[in-house]
Amino acid sequence: MVLKRSLAIFGVIMAVVITGLYIEVSQSARGLEFAGGGLGQVSASEIDVNLAVCNPSFVPVTVESIESDMHGISNDYGSLEMTGKTIQPYSQEKLQGTLSFVDFDAMKTFVDWTISNETGTDFNSTLLIKTKVLGLIPYSYEKNYNLEEFSNLVFGKGKWDCQLTQNYGDVKQQLMLVQARMSVAGLLYSGNIGMGDNSTKSINATNSTGNNQSSLGQ
After folding, report:
1. Which residues pair with 61 in a beta bridge?
2. What are phi and psi of 154, to 5 degrees?
3. pTM for this predicted structure
């Protein structure tokens, strides 16, 4: 009788511990904060992006990957994929990834919408974040974003509780430079747009046969 009671009490304690651990894990993973970390190379249908991540919790969180599809009711725009990294407690890291679009027009539409702060557009993004808390406990979650929310996540500054101040410049200003180059490239049947972290290097426009038509410097 005493043994049964002890086992019952032990079971209750373990249930409480597991529940508390699950809550802590989910709060730590969902508590990650994101901000635009700058742009990398830009091609005819891809934009390399950096994403600053702040971990305001007291346990390390490993971001294994961040994946997102970008779509509308009648259109598919592309996807986002970010590589992972471990973010120590009360610290920040920068993740690298790529916005891949179905074609040049989809990329230009997305960039134009973002810069114009369009609302009510036919756009939705489902973000899947895969993490491990303490390097051991897997936890994944999904979140839906409209265009404004998604743009702020990837290019904006958002909430930031880490002690270090994010200092990656005005990402949307970089995006405006991409937009200007894309407009020129679109007129020339664009092939590739090259852009460094802080400035555009060149635009190599090609025709439908792949022959180089024009190269525009900065």
Report:
1. 87, 133
2. -85, -35
3. 0.71
